[in-house]
Amino acid sequence: MTQTAPIVTVLVPCYNEEGAVAETIEKLDSALAPLGNFQILAIEDGSEDGTLTVLRSLESRHPRLTVVPHDRNRGYGAALKTGMREAASDLIAIIDADGTYPIADLPKLVGIAIDRNLDMVVGARTGENVTYSTLRKIPKFFLHRWINWIVNQKIPDINSGMRVFRRDMARKFVRILPNGFSFTITITISALRNNYRVHFEPIDYFARKGNSKIHPIKDTLRFVQIIGRTGMYFAPLRILSPLLVVLAIGSTASLCYDAFVLRDLTEKSLVLLTMLLNVGIFAILADMIDKRSQV
């Protein structure tokens, strides 16, 4: 007799979460129970504490839980990629193990994805009870606006770690999805720039249990790099247009100065014009390649 595939597979990446993961799994199992058929994959990412021991104990008590261990720490995104390969369902949900997300709302996101036939439902941390550190709010303020510019729409939450998405959609971008924390930003930009059906549902967000694994300066720089790279994949003209405007203004100002003040064409103007031409041609070619790849 053929076994029916789960309605959803929930991926829980775990790294040094021995103090929080048990409560997270217990709440997940309880919250998802009304769905009937579901799967929980806990990807143990080479923790240095007792996370794996706790997970093995939970696995023996929860038949729908499967623990997938990494031999070493590979990163948040790598853990999610492992989970996608191991998942028995075409509908994937992800949630952190640290107790920051409202687990009780996850079935609601699953229901929205199924009922509306959406490609991704993001739990946007814009609910009434949201706890953010001030240190994380500062870089998010600028990154948020930059991503809004790239995708040409307002995004309520750029990198929420609680979301539901179709596995076949994620597989199309797997080559550019990073192994670190930038996984969620990248899949958000990729889905929106390629016109997938994405919905943002408001949720709460709580203070985490234990120490955060985010390094504000290093990870913000990495986010900038990833956002720029992903933008060049899917929106090269939009990424390069500010540089083109600056070069155009600089070239025009330099030519006017040469013509009306120096009454001679200088090398500076020629260099600026050459740069403007080269960047413009590169941007147009990159945009044509991007459009052709979507055909």
TrEMBL record:
Residue ranges crossing the lipid bilayer per the database entry: 173-192, 239-257, 269-289
UniProt entry tagged with the keyword Electron transport: no
Keyword rRNA-binding found: no
Keyword set, alphabetical order: Membrane, Transferase, Transmembrane, Transmembrane helix
Domain named Glycosyltransferase 2-like: residues: 9-172
SUPFAM superfamilies, per the entry: Nucleotide-diphospho-sugar transferases (SSF53448)
PANTHER family, alphabetized: RFBJ PROTEIN, UNDECAPRENYL-PHOSPHATE 4-DEOXY-4-FORMAMIDO-L-ARABINOSE TRANSFERASE-RELATED
Protein name, entry field: Glycosyltransferase family 2 protein
Organism annotation: Luteimonas marina
